[in-house]
Write a structure and sequence with these properties.
This protein has 223 residues and is of the alpha/beta class. The chain is built from eight helices and nine strands. A hairpin with a 6-residue loop joins strand 1 and strand 2.
């Protein structure tokens, strides 16, 4: 048996170990064959149908791009990353976000930052999912990641609130570092629902002197 064939067999075994065909789809949870990114073929098709790209930005943003609409498979994927610690999903999610970002270029952005998590919540979860996505996006668009924002209030989760409560909840919750002055920033989050969080972050960045703020998210909730 040739060295090439032995290598192919070894790579195939490794692939089956890392991505078993009888795995639960991370989009819908079904026990089905998943050869790519642990997403079943049906969820992959659903994501493709929900592609967004450029979209009207929330208040205070110069431009916005989203990979997908927030329904079906996208909901499952975000939940797995955000609440179940499946951090390997950030890689292919970041790739999709980079593809969406191309639809709003050129932005003149010189850095990527993320919606920050309060230190207490980050300590409980162990990571900030938005930072994982921001770092993946930064690597793909060849920009530095910089933590330019702080969360100064430990607010309740936005998902549990209506639109008016969301705006009130994040009002004054963020502070930008002085390093934001004069910067053109790409702000990253996982999901944009009402845009309240993005708007509050943009307000803080501009108060610190940022020249422009664009938003890139994995998904956007559509009316």
């Amino acid at each position: 048996m040739s060295i090439t064939m032995n290598l192919q067999i070894a790579l195939s075994a490794l692939r089956n170990l890392l991505f078993p065909l009888r795995a639960n789809c991370l989009g819908c949870g079904a026990a089905t064959g998943c050869r790519e990114d642990w997403i079943c073929p049906a969820c992959r098709k659903a994501l493709t149908r929900g592609w967004v790209g450029a979209s009207p930005p929330p208040k205070g943003m110069d431009a916005a791009a989203f990979a997908y609409t927030y329904h079906g498979a996208a909901v499952g994927i975000v939940s797995q990353l955000k609440y179940r610690g499946v951090t390997r999903l950030a890689g292919f999610m970041g790739g999709d976000m980079a593809r969406a970002y191309r639809f709003i270029e050129p932005t003149g952005a010189d850095c990527v930052t993320c919606v920050p998590m309060h230190p207490k919540r980050r300590a409980r979860r162990g990571y900030n999912h938005a930072e994982l996505l921001a770092r993946e996006l930064a690597a793909r668009v060849d920009l530095p990641f910089e933590a330019l924002l702080e969360r100064v209030r430990d607010t309740p989760q936005q998902a549990r609130l209506d639109a008016d409560a969301r705006r009130s909840n994040v009002s004054g919750a963020f502070r930008a570092l002085d390093a934001a002055g004069g910067r053109r920033v790409l702000l990253v989050d996982d999901v944009c629902t009402t845009g309240s969080t993005a708007t509050a972050c943009a307000r803080a960045l501009r108060a610190a002197g940022a020249e422009a703020v664009c938003l890139v998210c994995y998904a956007r909730a559509m009316k």
